[in-house]
Amino acid sequence: MSERKFKYVGTRPIRHDGVDKVTGRANFGADFDAPGMLHGALLRSPHAHARILSVDTRAAEAVAGVKAVLTGQELPKLQSMWMGGAEGGIDFRDIAENCLARDKVLYHGHAVAAVAATTPEIALQAARMIEVEYEELTPVLDLEAAVASDAPILHDDLQPIGATDPLPEGPTNIAGRVEFSRGDVDAGFAEADVVVEREFRTQMVHQGYIEPHACVARIGEDDQVVVWCTTQGGFAVKNYSAMVLQMDPAKIKVISSEIGGGFGGKTTIYLEPVAIALARKARRPVKMVMSREEVFRATGPTSGTIVRAELGAKRDGTLVAGRLSMFYEAGAYRGSPAGPGAMCAFGSYKIPNFYIEAHDVVVNKPKVAAYRAPGAPMSTFATESLVDELARELGLDPIEMRLHNAVDEGDQAPYGPVYGPIGLRETLEAARSHPHYKAPLGQNQGRGIACGFWFNAGMSSSANVSLHADGSAVVATGNPDIGGSRAAQAQMVSEELGIPVERVRPVVADTDSVGYTDMTGGSRVCFATGMAVIQASRDVVDQLRARAAQIWGVELDSVAWEDGRALPANGAEGDHEPLPIEELAQQMGRTGGPIVGKASLTAPMAGPGFATHLCDLEVDPETGASRVVRYTAIQDAGKAVHPGYVEGQYQGGSAQGIGWALNEEYIFDERGEMENPGFLDYRMPVASDLPMIDTVIVEVPNPLHPYGVRGVGETPIVPPLAAVANAMRGATGVRFTVLPMSPPRVLEAIDA
Amino acid sequence: MLSIRYEAPASVGEAVALLDADEGAKVIAGGTDLLVQYRSGLREPTAFVDVKRIPDLMEISIDADGLVLGAATPAAEVFENTEIRQLWPGVAEATDLIGSTQIQGRATLGGNLCNSSPAADTVPALIAVGAQAVIAGPSGERELAVEDFVTGPGQNVLGRGEFLVKLRVPRPGPRTSDAYLRLIPRTEMDIAVVGAGVALTLDEGGTCTAARVAIGAVAPTALLVPDAAAALVGSSVDDAALAGAAQAASAAASPIDDKRGTVAYRRKVTGVLTQRAAAIAAERARER
Questions:
Q1: Taking a C-beta distance cutoff of 8 angstroms, is the pair B219, B287 a contact?
Q2: Using CB atoms within 10 A of its CB, is residue B152 exposed (0-12), middle (13-18) or buried (19+)?
Q3: Are the beta carbons of A686 and B1 separated by less than 8 Å?
Q4: B233 in contact with A, Cβ within 8 Å
Q5: From A121, which residue of chain B is nearest by alpha-carbon distance?
Q6: Euclidean distance between CA atoms A548 and A559, whole angstroms
Q7: Residue A232 counted as domain residue
């Protein structure tokens, strides 16, 4: 497999959607308008925790221009039903009540009622005229308060899920618990020469996608619904909306727009069912667009966490025991990424004895959503910080320490499966020999290193490849293109058919136009949807070979396909002139009809991704301000289909992780209102904050994919939290266990 | 519902009349604060009075007396002006810190002052160089020191019908220069957690003969700190004098704990930035 010589895979063509995006021609979520369209607005809760006693919409309904008003009570009342998933599960009752609260509001900004009116201003003004009577309840704003024995309870009927032995007595805010263990932990720690133990804390952080959520819903007299929206998965919007509204999914078509970033944040729904319900009431299309403030207050960030961690090693650096007790904020409803956090925490090392427990805890903050390798950055922040501490205590080089314990093919992952070929060791070796690792450090600078693991997802995908009479092709899949997947899919078609990338048109199809496809997420598109594209392309090639066999009057086996032409196989050259794809395509109508290749598949496994990051940080000892002066991200891509976009993933994940480490955090006041719902005070890095992030693509082919591809999107955000903290340790002598390492926090620690 | 008049007077008198006639009217120059506040519902003006067509407000003139800067002159024109950069480098660098390149094409120093945020970057820099604000109103023109213009967060001395026309900055004498520094957690697109502006004059022997120190974002308004200036005057701006200035600036700060920083942090960094800005200003003064 790895012997294959690629012609198009591994090159860097300009993405097909690129020019439209840089010139502003591309249509994003808020760019679509329908004739006769109304504008929707939401009334949001001013309380973080309160019972809704009454909602009076009469004043809003009386406003000129208002065409429909909707409350949570008008949506169908659903039964709770938990459906687990690799990156966190879902409960449609929770999704519905997060779209519009029913009996209780559970965070400041929780949507309570909606208005559709002829202008956005009227809608907003009318929404503010809806009178809601609340009974205020004490908000639960942090993990310790949530698990305290006398904690106010968010959900009276919450039943913990998972490893809940013993089951808590009475109502609880602990929604679930997972456990992983191996060996004898106490014996392991007894055997250790050095044990380090710390408690780590991180705050809620947002994905920071630039494009706010937006949609337009239209409904016909026959109740057929069309939704245009920005999403990571049109099929999810269709099926989730149908569930929330208890509609027949056959009546809903979803057309996904271009997407201005998602990072997991657009894997659920907020506006779509509300827009559909308003459109149904008003009998006119309804557009809803969130403001930035609404995105911060009421869409899903990722969890704030507490991770109590302990790690023991022998004097030679061999890790012998580890223990983690983790608490993840779920926000208002169950479903934090505590599970994947637990799966990934020890994923990089051979640790013979460990115990991991992770709790999913509800608090009066927005319900979390997926964020790039959900759960893994926080648990890895703890373990990679401790590995660094152990290396310091033992006087070992941090890369040698990691190489000494790195997992290899045949080792068992902490959550069960045995690793196939993996590239952790290769990334560490690449880090060791990289000029960055040998470069001298300046004054007040420190260097940090950290590894990261993410399991990656496979899931279900479909693809159609249609051949045109001119020998060009169209590839249609159901995945919104976030990270350059159109270009990568076109490259795969090119590779199989033997036609230039520019002669392949990649299409993001709507939910009526392609087979079921899971969301763009889990680093799965290039891997799983890519496999469907390759299979569909091979289907086209087989049909082309059959046409050539028919023309030549030979058996199918006697026709080979190479470089975009049919050739006589088995050394039978000379018998027939090669038939190029253009000629075969031109004759399609006469040789059996148009050619369409199709494939649908479910990939149960994906092949994990490992990375090693190097970070140089400079700290101003008088102000605590810090600056990343050099950063190198090294990761196993299996096979990089489009190296430019693989590098972009490494750089983007690193940038997000650096922001998380240094400055990003949700700040709530004592009533649970977020104080920094905008990019001014929610401090993501801007371009000038970061150096050019250097990348190294390591390629250890993944045997589960025909080209050896591994997902690359998520792993890059796993190492940076610890890489930056380890660099901070080097620069200041202080081990930081609380994020973000903002200037005030750093200065306080330096001066302590 | 929600209709706002737009007025674009061509003279100071016309603008005064418009503002005097409608208490809800707001002066708009670049609009980089006002429009954001309006869109987020913080302000609901009845009219925008656009002052960019009044020639006096768009003027930059430099002569023997110093600088006259129209209140609506875009930031980019200020810091791209070679003469301003040379004569008032601290004012230029404070102006260059505002927003992004796109914002700087519209944002103005006059707007920065009239928005009256305690964290405005150009205000401490203007105070340090002794800038005066020229105000027009129904009873004619008046002029006052920039440090007396802002009275509290978002509040200033402008009365009904009044607006800021221009700033006057005296021409620096020999061996006189200035500097401005701010602390933000990022490198740009941020609001000062602490700001410090220093202007000083050295004699031929390198002894400081005059100084003005102003600090921002650490009190309800930007503050002139005479004690910090006094610590510099008479010294060669050596380490001891710098430490004295830092201490005086920290003592003058009365910051709050908020999402951008703590009291202790802001107090300490006020001293650090004052010291650094004074050292830079002295270095520049030695070269002039």
A1: no
A2: exposed
A3: no
A4: no
A5: B2
A6: 7
A7: yes
- Yes or no: say if B51 and B15 are a contact pair by the CB < 8 Å rule: yes
ipTM over 0.85: yes
Same domain, A360 and A472: no
DSSP, collapsed to helix, strand or coil, labels residue B143 as: strand
Kindly list the structural domains of chain B, giving each domain's residue range(s) and its CATH number in brackets, ordered by start: 5-50 (3.30.43.10), 55-170 (3.30.465.10), 176-286 (3.30.390.50)
CATH number of the domain bearing residue A661: 3.30.365.10
Q: Which of A275, A298, A321 is the last residue of a domain?
A: A298
Please answer yes or no on whether B265 and A688 come within 8 Å at the CB atom: no
User: How sure is the predictor about B42, in pLDDT bands with cuts at 50, 70 and 90?
Assistant: confident
In angstroms, the CA A637 to CA A657 distance is: 19
Domain membership of residue A628 as a residue range:
305-416+424-452+608-751
Which stretches of chain B are assigned E, i.e. beta strand? 5-7, 25-28, 47-50, 60-63, 66-70, 132-137, 140-145, 150-152, 155-156, 163-170, 176-183, 194-202, 208-216, 223-224
- Answer yes or no: are the C-beta atoms of B35 and B45 closer than 8 Å: no
A269, two tokens: 């729904």
Asked if the model's pLDDT at residue A162 lies above 90, the reply is no
Cβ atoms of A716 and A710 closer than 8 Å:
no
Chain-chain contact of A122 with B1 (C-beta, under 8 angstroms): yes
Scan residues 183-212 of B and list those with Cβ closer than 8 Å to A. 183, 185-191, 193
State the DSSP H helix or E strand holding residue A181, giving kind and residue range, or none if neither.
strand A174-182
| B262: contact with A, CB 8 A cutoff | yes
Contact between A686 and B186 using a beta-carbon 8 Å cutoff: yes
More confident residue, A274 or A85: A274
Q: Which residues on B lie below 8 Å from A125 (Cβ)? A: 1-2
Name the burial class of residue A312, with classes exposed (0-12), middle (13-18) and buried (19+) by CB atoms within 10 angstroms of its CB.
buried
Instruction: State the helix-helix crossing angle for A338-345 and A376-394, rounded to 10 degrees.
Output: 30
